[in-house]
């Protein structure tokens, strides 16, 4: 295994998991959040995950301590980017925020560093426009799935300038993490969310039209379609704000009605009911 220095920008729901698996694979990991308290909270979540792994016999206490010892907090994007081999952004699904971050990474990272985005829907080519032309071959989509330590998939998305060497680097890192790679063209939603979001949207429309209760709709998918989670509880798990953002990107990109976010989703997000992370979405949490 090649030991790398990795910067993870954003250590929320996705970012803390990315930082965890990178550190578990033996990489030196730096994490950045604009507020240090949020970075510390992300590391605390990682520590809790590792504690549970030790309790279940999946790792030793020495391995837990070694993993945590590989993670440090960067004081700024520029400080964190110095000397890195790979930078992964996992900030909110907002193109302007991501482009600003990429410009800062471009200014601070070595010329050889790969800049990867964990975006679930935004064009990699548009994000690459934020960096110098010479850097664009090192810009790539590296989309993880939640929860990152458990889900074994990475979507690799090339923009028109992404080099073969950059793809090989991402594939090598994915192998070190024990992840399987699929390659998507740089189109709205990529592969997984282009399939998933219309399914979630149709379940939401069925719910808002009174076709069935949330429980019955989800049970129909779990029992009738053999899905591990129902579409409404999955949307709550992903975050209804995230689902809304992805559906808006898909609808803007394709203009087809089945990609449009349903009214009930707009209403829940506007009310601040974002799913599990706020305690209420299509369900109220904790359930049961």
Please characterize this protein's 3D structure.
- This protein has 288 residues and is an alpha/beta fold.
- It folds into two domains: 5-184, Rossmann fold; 194-277, N-(1-d-carboxylethyl)-l-norvaline Dehydrogenase, domain 2 (Orthogonal Bundle), CATH 1.10.1040.10.
- It is 47% helix and 13% strand.
- It is built from twelve helices and eight strands.
- The protein has helices spanning 15-24, 36-55, 61-69, 77-81, 95-108, 124-128, 164-176, 192-208, 214-224, 231-238, 240-254, 263-270, and strands spanning 5-9, 28-32, 71-73, 86-89, 114-117, 139-144, 153-158, 180-184.
- Strands 3-2-1-4-5-6-7-8 form an eight-stranded mixed sheet, with helices on both faces.
- Helix 1 crosses helix 2, helix 8 packs across helix 10 (231-238) and helix 8 crosses helix 11 (240-254).
- The protein is globular.
What is the topology?
Blueprint: E1 5-9, H1 15-24, E2 28-32, H2 36-55, H3 61-69, E3 71-73, H4 77-81, E4 86-89, H5 95-108, E5 114-117, H6 124-128, E6 139-144, E7 153-158, H7 164-176, E8 180-184, H8 192-208, H9 214-224, H10 231-238, H11 240-254, H12 263-270
Parallel strand pairs: 1-2, 1-4, 2-3, 4-5, 5-6, 7-8
Antiparallel strand pairs: 6-7
Short recap of the structure:
This protein is an alpha/beta fold.
């Amino acid at each position: 295994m090649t030991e790398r220095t990795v910067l993870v920008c954003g250590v929320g729901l996705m970012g803390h998991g990315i930082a965890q698996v990178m550190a578990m694979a033996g990489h030196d990991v730096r994490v950045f959040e604009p507020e240090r308290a949020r970075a510390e909270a992300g590391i605390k979540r990682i520590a809790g995950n590792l504690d549970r792994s030790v309790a279940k016999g999946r790792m030793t206490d020495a391995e837990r301590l070694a993993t945590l010892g590989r993670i440090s907090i960067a004081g700024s994007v520029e400080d964190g980017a110095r000397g890195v081999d790979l930078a992964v952004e996992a900030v909110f699904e907002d193109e302007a925020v991501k482009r600003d971050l990429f410009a800062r990474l471009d200014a601070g990272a070595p010329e050889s560093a790969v800049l990867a985005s964990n975006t679930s829907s935004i064009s990699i080519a548009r994000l690459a426009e934020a960096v110098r032309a010479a850097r664009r071959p090192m810009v790539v989509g590296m989309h993880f799935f939640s929860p990152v330590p458990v889900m074994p998939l990475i979507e690799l998305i090339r923009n028109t300038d992404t080099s073969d060497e950059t793809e090989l680097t991402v594939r090598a890192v994915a192998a070190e993490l024990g992840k399987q790679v699929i390659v998507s063209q740089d189109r709205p939603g990529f592969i997984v969310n282009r399939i998933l979001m219309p399914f979630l949207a149709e379940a939401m429309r069925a719910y808002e039209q009174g076709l069935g209760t949330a429980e019955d709709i989800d049970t129909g998918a779990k029992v009738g379609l053999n899905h591990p989670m129902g579409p409404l509880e999955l949307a709550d798990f992903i975050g209804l704000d995230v689902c809304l953002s992805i559906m808006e990107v898909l609808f803007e990109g394709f203009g087809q009605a089945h990609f449009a976010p349903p009214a009930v989703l707009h209403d829940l997000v506007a009310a601040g009911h974002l799913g599990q992370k706020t305690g209420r979405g299509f369900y109220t949490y904790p359930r049961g």
